[in-house]
Amino acid sequence: MATKCASLTRGKMIRITKLDTCGNVVTGAASTLVAKAFISATITPNYLDPEEITQADANGDLCIDDRSPVALRWVDIELNVCTMDPDMINLITGDPIVLDDATPTPNKVGFRLDTALDGSANFGLEIWSGVSGSACAVGGFTPYGYWLFPWVKDAQWNEWTIENGTLTFTWTLRAVIGSGWGVGPYLNVRRDATVPATLEALLTPIGPTQVMHFEISTAPLPTPACGAVALP
């Protein structure tokens, strides 16, 4: 069994997939969105503070010295983007989209912060990163780092500044366990080991305690676009 090691650099692409309140993929109109216009995604695992129990004996020496096991609670994600895409904002935060009066089909031209809906969205987040100094894999395919957070929720807006400069949007998100992602709805996240190789979904389903998945993949990057599209 060979091991694949890689030096990862740069962010290439993100994909957002709409989930229901139970963490299951929602198919249909405006359920998936691919974007290149993101600046950074900062990943911070969140652990429960360990509980320590100590007791000294009559001589002042440790009689009991115990510490609870490490417990990963969830993963915090700070996502920073450099575009105003109403569909993206709706998929991440749940805030409603603003439409114009074009006929017969209105255009999506903005969004509203809504205290009744803000932070209510559930989605899966995929991120592709580059592999530095790596020659093409067998078959001439370019390798990428593929990061999957199968259930993300509880988005909170961070501050933004309107000034003589670039306006960016940043959210703090929470990736949690218990998703219904399974092997995912996409057949383009990895190549199998056959010759010639074919594009496939994840090899094994996401487990009930798994908050993140990573692998080196030679599947092509998805194509970015403004706005969400249907997920069959």
Brief write-up:
The chain is mostly beta strands and 232 residues long. It has one domain (7-231). Helix content is 3%, strand content 44%.
State the oligomer.
Answer: single chain
Number of helices: 1
Count of individual beta strands: 15
* End-to-end gap: 36 Å
Poorly predicted runs: none
Provide the residue-averaged pLDDT.
95
- SS-based class: mainly beta
Description:
It contains 1 helix and 15 strands. It has 232 residues and is mainly beta. It has one domain. Strands 1, 2, 3, 6, 9, 10, 11, 14 and 15 form a 9-stranded antiparallel β-sheet that branches. A two-stranded antiparallel sheet has the order 4-5. Strands 7-8 form a two-stranded antiparallel ribbon. The two termini are 36 Å apart.
Features:
232 residues, mainly beta, nine-stranded antiparallel beta sheet, two-stranded antiparallel sheet, 1 helix, 15 strands
Please render the helix and strand layout as text.
Blueprint: E1 7-19, E2 28-35, E3 38-47, E4 52-56, E5 62-67, E6 72-81, H1 86-93, E7 97-99, E8 108-111, E9 122-132, E10 144-157, E11 169-175, E12 190-191, E13 199-200, E14 213-217, E15 229-231
Antiparallel strand pairs: 1-2, 1-9, 2-15, 3-6, 4-5, 6-11, 7-8, 9-10, 10-11, 10-14, 12-13
